[in-house]
Amino acid sequence: MNNTPSLDVEFKTVIEHRENIYSIGDDFALANIPVKDINFGHSPSRMSGLVLILCTNGKAHININMKPHLVVKNDFVILPPGQITQVIDANADFSMYALYMSEAFLTDNVSMNRSRNMTIFFTIRDNPIVHMEEYDINIITLYFDLMVHRIKDRSNPHLLTTMRHIFNALMSDMNDAFLKYLSVQKNKISRKDDICQNFMKLLMSHYKECRDVKFYADKLYITPKYLSNTLKAVTGKKAGQMIDEYVVLQAKILLSSTNMTIQQISEELNFANQSFFGRYFKRITGLSPTQYRR
Question: Which string of DSSP letters, residue by residue, matches 74-106?
Answer without folding.
Answer: TEEEEE-TT-EEEEEEE-TT-EEEEEEE-HHHH
